[in-house]
Design goal:
CATH architecture of the largest domain in chain A: Alpha-Beta Complex
CATH class of the largest domain in chain A: Alpha Beta
Low-confidence stretches of chain A: none
Pfam families (chains A, B): ADH_N_2 (PF16884), ADH_zinc_N (PF00107)
Structural class of chain A: alpha/beta
Largest sheet of chain A: 7 strands, mixed
Protein name (chains A, B): Zinc-binding dehydrogenase
Distance between the termini of chain A: 16 Å
Organism (chains A, B): Pedobacter gandavensis
Keywords (chains A, B): Oxidoreductase
InterPro entries (chains A, B): ADH-like_C (IPR013149), ADH_N_2 (IPR041694), ER (IPR020843), GroES-like_sf (IPR011032), MDR_fam (IPR045010), NAD(P)-bd_dom_sf (IPR036291)
CATH superfamily of the largest domain in chain A: Medium-chain alcohol dehydrogenases, catalytic domain
Largest interface: A-B, 38 and 38 residues
Strand content of chain A: 25-35%
Shape of chain A: globular
Number of helices of chain A: 9
Radius of gyration of chain A: 20 Å
Oligomer: homodimer
Number of strands of chain A: 16
Chain lengths: 331, 331
């Protein structure tokens, strides 16, 4: 039998175990024109929370009693599709199933010798592209400028900061544990890192960490952390808004100081984005990131949880900040 | 004797009469290399409120016990400066004085026969340029799109809406009296206009007025009006933030729903600006606006108050929404 994880209920606030349902179905078979895929690594990402709501967004919502889906690395265990062979590894947005048949559309073959397979869900996958494209296309950092990253120890934030350092910027990260703060400084070479949970005056802490002000704020979180950074932006600051993890589970609108006066006074730019808008830049981004990886200029953190059954819990743990870097489930 | 208006006290909240002081000084004389100017028209503008604070902004604050200043049209009554003759009219940022000597730096000669002199403080001056540049350079409207303008009956808003109509957009204005709403539709040919003071559900009213959603939101006001518009933006919406008149007098931060989730979900862009950032576009803008004026495609509203002594009151009346279009004092 084949295990499958369905959306059982739409979460109210934070997702809970009962929002998911495990079922078993008959083993799928590959028909003509299909491959049979075995799931190896599953990516869990904050943006999936949005797809669990029944509301219009940039991607359609998941349907109740249908499988959840996310970025997956899978092995081709049988192929009736030209171009794919048994033993190939592929990535794509796939259902949360142990095995699935697939027509190949949207699958990309990946080389298990060029990088760890899980990297294709992270630094060489959606999160790495998100960091690279959001920073380069919206943040447009120049050497000598100061970049602040919230959610800095996450999969996107840790890459943003490292790219900032490669480009010659001062980089300050904001994260939620002392361990993460330490990792940002030692492993990812951030100039400064701030634990927002133990800092009483975050606005003052950002100011102290950014003596010449904030030129680029790469925002992964929204909420009060962002208020504190916005209070320190320079004229012509750029603010790529990549996510608002702290707000995804909100059941009522989250109130904060209105930002329009700051935006005018500072002639600042804020732009929300999803990585697919920059698809034309992906080849450049992947080539550049692969080079930096090989040169040892870029490293990445993963939190790898083992077992297909752990996928929902790993996803829920994202909202408790339990991951360092990319959260991955190894099946 | 020569009347002068000084900044007497920095306002707390809305400016009041006692924040200004009238004094008399000896009549100025034009020295060699100077012109003697007689003030004819004075522009009062919301942005001046920011200069009355003792805080860093995009222009230096006014000094206490020094003259206030703003855009002025003046007549040259005596010239000891080559290039200027008695009877010339000029515009520039000048002190609130009946007469003043000036070295000519930053003055621009204007033609009293090409347009009404007051137009050089409005549609062919800073407010017209603000409307044109903010809309074209940040809003980037395309024919068939929907533009919403707040502060629509003001000097900037009314021009934004008209340019939108010229470009083939649907244009919806938000203003604060039924008279303004009527003027937006009859005089400026807005497709719809909403009186936010008499509308109980502004979000629903914006939705009804914008059946295909909001592509460009030209924001002059900030605050709850903007919350209602932001709730209706389309994917890839552009939001030039020109001003935040409703927030300029705030003594405590104004709270509202945080916008980051909307910015991400809609891949929206918000950019604050001041018109001087677009100086390179001014010649194009003035040429285009002059052409539209001559073709009768563009008209403008002015509220003209008479008397030098009325300058502070006219300025204070801006924050009560007493103006239709550009607020001008005729001296």
């Amino acid at each position: 039998m084949n295990k499958v994880i369905l959306l059982n209920a739409r979460p109210v606030g934070k997702p809970v175990s009962s929002d998911f349902k495990f079922i078993e179905e008959a083993m799928p078979v590959a028909n003509e024109g299909q491959v049979l895929l075995k799931t190896k690594y599953v990516s869990v990402d904050p943006y999936l929370r949005g797809r669990m709501n029944d509301s219009e967004s940039y991607i359609p919502p998941f349907e109740l009693n249908k499988p959840m889906a996310s970025g997956v690395v899978a092995e081709v265990v049988e192929s009736k599709l030209p171009g794919f062979e048994k033993g190939d590894f592929v990535t794509g947005v796939l259902d949360w199933k142990e095995y699935q048949a697939h027509n190949g559309q949207g699958l990309m073959k990946v080389d298990p010798n060029a990088a760890d397979l899980s990297a294709y869900l992270g630094i060489l996958g959606m999160t790495g592209l998100t960091a690279y494209c959001g920073l380069m296309e919206i943040g447009k950092p120049k050497a000598g400028e100061t970049i602040v990253v919230s959610g800095a120890a996450g999969a996107v934030g840790s890459v943003v900061g490292q790219i900032g350092k490669i480009l010659g910027c001062r980089v300050v990260g904001i994260a939620g544990t002392d361990e993460k703060v330490e990792m940002l400084k030692s492993k990812f070479h951030f100039d400064e890192a701030i634990n927002y949970k133990t800092t009483t005056d975050l606005k003052a802490a950002v100011k102290a960490a950014c003596p010449t002000g904030v030129d680029v704020y790469f925002d992964n979180v929204g909420a009060a952390i962002s208020d504190a950074v916005l209070a320190n932006i320079n004229r012509y600051a750029r603010i790529p808004v990549c996510g608002a993890i702290s707000l995804y589970n909100a059941t009522t609108p989250d109130l904060g100081p209105r930002i329009q006066p700051t935006m005018v006074i500072k002639s600042a730019l804020m732009q929300g984005f999803i990585v697919s808008a920059f698809a034309a830049k992906f080849p450049e981004a992947i080539a550049q990131m692969s080079t930096w990886l090989k040169e040892g200029k870029l490293s990445y953190a993963e939190t790898v949880v083992e077992g297909f059954d752990q996928i929902p819990q790993a996803f829920m743990d994202l909202f408790e900040g339990k991951n360092e870097g990319k959260m991955i489930v190894k099946v």
